[in-house]
Each structure stands twice: as structure tokens, then as C-alpha cells.
Amino acid sequence: MTSNGIRTGAVVLAAGFSSRMGKCKALLDVGGSAALERILSTLRLSGVKDIVVVSGHYREAVEGEAKRGGARAVFNEHYEKGMLSSIKAGVTALSPNLDAFFLLPVDVPLVKPATLQALKQARRSEPNSAVVIPAFLGRRGHPPLVATRLIPGILEWDGPGGLRTFLDRYEEASLVLEMPDQGVVTEMNTPEEYAALRSLASRRGIPTEKECLAFWEILSTPPEVRDHCRVVAEVAVGFARALKGILPVDTENLAAAALLHDMSRAGRDHAEAAAGTLDSWGFAATADLVRYHMDLPEKEPLLSERSLLYLADKVVSGNRIVGLERKAKEMEKRFETDPEALTGARFRLQRAERISKALERLSKKGHR
């Protein structure tokens, strides 16, 4: 139960009628796993062991899935009264020695383990917080991490607005934490929402365009750097399209890596810093491209996803496409008093020239 220095549990709400969906949401397929199975796995990966799943209308199915996932199930006899009754049933069943608990509806199954870790770290840094709430681009989402000292008040609460209104009373003692995790605001209450959620789940290892924006916001990436990244993304995707049917390229991943390659530009060793951040959020494939956008591995093939990003970054200066010749002149001027840096810049541009020529040859050959 202890992770990041605090004892945490979780209440997963799966007692509802799923009336708008028309079927049990807990068992819906989400990226190859049932929604409830995916949530339980995420909680386990985040070090949460005391997990209570609240069942109701679909009691047998939900409790069966909870048992397979190693969670405890509790039946809410009053599930028809709404979510607050399920919350009360769930918190009553939690172990008594916890500091805080996550509260997660089963229809929000794409929350990343890194989000839960970040919420716990925030709670550890400010242990007197009543609630730590994840947000995505300013919109609050799930799951809140609620201090267990609020449980007696939750059990007594019967006011309008459910738990949200109750928690509003603790706004000044709450933290709102911005996350680069679209999953915290992605729900599936209707078939249309479910279709959109499944689409997101199928590419969960690659940041969405909105998640790229969230990274920029969280890291305070300057506007001029964002403009540069947008142009690099356009160029990199253009290279990939020129090789369509010739070289297999994950265009979505390439575009995301281009948007984020300089997101940590203000710091030292920014390529590794950005890649490390992406790795920690479960975006390993994107991190791999970002890590090598400045210097490719020695034996990297001339044409690869890495080399396309590398080349795109080299032909763009600021928010302008300038080409390698102009970039070389800029480097000569920039490093005229630093011979060692100039030698490195020349080497990188020479390598970019070889990649550019290989790209031109192969794209012409493939479109004859």
C-alpha cells in the first residue's frame, strides 16, 4: 500500500446501469483488455494494492472481473440511488490505515500509471492536502486522490451535487496538477465516446497532438521553440510521405517526436531530458526519436524514422525552412570562435547531406 511514502488505496466505481452505453462498461474492450482489467493493472503498476471495486447492476460480471484482477469487490445495495451511494460503499470497505485513496469511475480507463505516481508524489510533498486533482489543458479529470480524513464527512454528506459539491468545500486545501495525459478526461458514457476512446487506446504509446501541447504548457516551452517544432514536424511528415510505400514510417510517432524534440530546450542536454520525460510517461517510441534528433547513433541506417527527424531539424532554422547550405553558413558564423563546436556542427550537417541525398534518390526511384 505504501508508495512514494504514503499509503494509498483505490475505489473503482462500476455499479451503474450503463444506460447510455447499453452494455456493461466494465467489460468493454479497451486496447485488448476489459476496461476494469486495464484499470486494475494501472493501479497495480502504480503501487496501489488495496483496491475496492464497487458493483451494482452488473454485479456478477463486475465482481468476477474484480476477482481475476486481484481486487476486493463490494456490492452497493443502493446503486440505483446514484454514484454517491457507490462512493460511500467503496470508502467504507477501504483498509483503515490509508493516508489517501484514488477514486476512479470504470468509464475512465486510460489514465496512465505516471499520472497516479505524479499525484502521489504531490500528496507526499504536501501531506496536508485534502485532494490532489489531475487536469489536462486546464480541464479537471480523474482520478482525484482524496485524503482518508475526509471519509467521515463523505459518509455523512447527502447534499446536492454529489461528491463534487462536497469536495468543493476543500478547494483551498486542494491541489490541481496539470498532466500530459489525455486519459484523465477521456470517458466512455456513450457508444460515440467509446469509439473515440478505443481510437485513443490503440495508439496510447504515442502522444496525441493535445498531449504534445500539454507537455509544452507544463514545461513552459517558449512560443518561438513551439513554432520551430511545428515547422520541423511539417518537414518530417513531408519526408515520410515522399517515402510512402518505400520505407515503413510511423507518421504519427514521427510527428509527435518532431513536436516535442525541443520541448526541454531551455535546459542542459535537452534531447536526453526530453526523452527521459517521455519515457517516464510511457511514450518510449517517441522518446527514442527525440533522444537522437541531434546526434544519430554511429551505425544508424541512412533512412529511418530517426534520420528523418534528424534531417528535418537540420533544414529548419527558427520557424523557416532554410536548407542545409544556409544552415551550414549559420553554423559557421555561430561557432566561429569555438573550433571544437564548429567541427561537430560540420560533421552533423555532412551526415544530414548524405541522408538528404539518399532520401532524394529513393523517393525518385519509388515514384517512377
List strands and helices in order, with pairings.
Elements (H helix, E strand, L loop, with lengths): L1 E2 L2 E9 L14 E2 L2 E2 H11 L4 E6 L3 H10 L3 E4 L7 H11 L6 E6 L7 H13 L5 E6 L2 E2 L4 E3 L3 H6 L5 H7 L5 E5 L12 H12 L6 H11 L3 H20 L8 H10 L9 H11 L3 H8 L13 H11 E2 L2 E2 L1 H12 L4 H28 L2
Parallel strand pairs: 2-5, 2-7, 5-6, 8-11
Antiparallel strand pairs: 1-2, 3-4, 7-10, 8-9, 8-10, 12-13
Helix pairs in contact: 9-10, 9-13, 10-12, 11-12, 13-15, 14-15
Compact overview of the structure:
Helix content is 49%, strand content 14%. The chain has 15 helices and 13 strands. Strands 1, 2, 5, 6, 7, 8, 9, 10 and 11 form a nine-stranded mixed β-sheet that branches.
Provide structural commentary.
The chain is of the alpha/beta class. Helix content is 49%, strand content 14%. The strands form three sheets. Strands 1, 2, 5, 6, 7, 8, 9, 10 and 11 form a nine-stranded mixed beta sheet that branches. Strands 3-4 form a two-stranded antiparallel ribbon. It has a two-stranded antiparallel ribbon with strand order 12-13. The chain starts with a strand and ends with a helix. The mean pLDDT is 95.
